[in-house]
């Protein structure tokens, strides 16, 4: 069997095994503007040095991080409190919003 014969199987397994990204970025934006923008900024660029930039972050990473804060697997004074009130849908929507923000990076001169 050639390796190219395995490509359809590999592609199908990636699709089946990848997590569903069903978050609604528009709903996430509304939630973020109320709950997250104070620290993480309205565009996902942090307002305080202690808060990370979330703009353009990988969606699955944000889902995991927020879930870990909510469960206590990861701790931060502010995020542990804030995440307790988030539902799974809230987390998916917030992750979709921040992941949808386009950022650009420039190499230093």
Describe this structure in words.
The chain is mainly alpha-helical. The chain has six helices and no strands. It is globular and about 55 Å long. The model is unreliable at 13-18 (pLDDT under 50).
- Report the biggest beta sheet as strand number plus sense, adding barrel if it closes: none
- End-to-end separation in angstroms reads 50 Å
How many individual β-strands? 0
The portion of residues forming beta strands comes to under 5%
Low-confidence stretches: 13-18
Categorize the overall geometry.
globular
Which structural traits does this protein have?
single chain, 109 residues, mainly alpha
Show the helix and strand layout.
Layout lengths: L6 H11 L7 H11 L1 H4 L18 H13 L5 H7 L4 H13 L9
Helix pairs in contact: 2-6, 4-5, 4-6
